[in-house]
Design goal:
Elements lengths: L6 E5 L4 H15 L4 E5 L11 H15 L3 E4 L11 H14 L3 E4 L7 H16 L8 E2 L2 E2 L7 E5 L9 E4 L4 H9 L22 H17 L5 E6 L13
Helix pairs in contact: 1-5, 2-5, 3-4
Length: 242
């Protein structure tokens, strides 16, 4: 399966993945895993930048993260829905890339697209495993596929994580990937002229640093990224949890 990914990250906007789970991506890429990102929208409603620039920044970040693939679904920023049309479009991608693990948006958050993206990803992953839902790629019928696990990263709002990944060794590269989106965040070496927003304020990156340290502190490391789960984990050996 040439297209198969080990981990597929689904994100409502370009930069969601970088802010929330870039360290986890980098950690698994360093272990030889194939990781891809699918952004749902181009973030075109953002007060700074535009759709074209956001796509360019996403590609720069993809190179930094050493992603196997990065695609954009072209869903409408702010107005996409968790409906049949959007689910089927995503099911085609799930069946194409056959990920074992999907990382999806936070289950609830400040931006309404994040909660919607969370539900869309979860529902599409389940429906992708149903044999009677038929999808086609290049005229060929796709085989059904359901990821083994869907985990939700944590974004702006604090959510108590069910587990935390040690990303201490990858924190500086995570920050580099975030700063690839120079239209969105405060980047001293490459300032963008535009209105100040909630995320372009210098304090926002300080918040990201603090959140990483908080999660790291919880597991006795320097930096961590937290995730929640909505399904039971199958464990055959308790030592796999250590």
């Amino acid at each position: 399966m040439a297209d198969k990914l080990d981990i597929l990250v689904m994100a409502s906007h370009p930069d969601d993945a970088e802010l929330s789970c870039a360290g986890t991506i980098l950690s698994h890429v360093s272990q030889g895993k194939k990781v891809g990102v699918i952004d749902f929208t181009k973030g075109e409603l953002g007060s700074r930048g535009n759709a074209t620039l956001r796509l360019e920044e996403a590609e720069k970040a993809a190179d930094i993260l050493k992603l196997t693939i990065r695609e954009n679904m072209g869903f409408e920023d702010g107005f996409f829905q968790n409906d049949q049309e959007h689910q089927l479009a995503l099911i085609k991608k799930i069946r194409k890339y056959k990920p074992d693990i999907v990382l999806a948006n936070a289950i609830t958050d400040r931006h309404t697209d994040h909660g919607k993206g969370s539900l869309l990803a979860k529902d599409a992953c389940f429906l992708s495993g149903l044999v009677k839902i038929e999808t086609f790629e290049d005229g060929e019928k796709q085989a059904h596929w359901r990821p083994s696990h869907v985990f939700h990263y944590i974004q702006n709002n604090y959510i108590k994580p069910d587990f935390i990944v040690d990303v201490s060794d990858f924190w500086n590269v995570k920050l580099k990937a975030i700063k690839a989106f120079s239209s969105q965040f405060h980047v001293e070496e490459n300032p963008y002229e535009g209105p100040e927003t909630f995320i372009s304020n210098p304090d926002f990156l300080n918040f990201i640093e603090s959140r990483g340290r908080e999660f790291g502190h919880a597991i006795n490391v320097k930096y961590g990224e937290g995730f929640t789960i909505n399904q039971s984990l199958k464990v055959s050996n308790l030592y796999n949890l250590l």
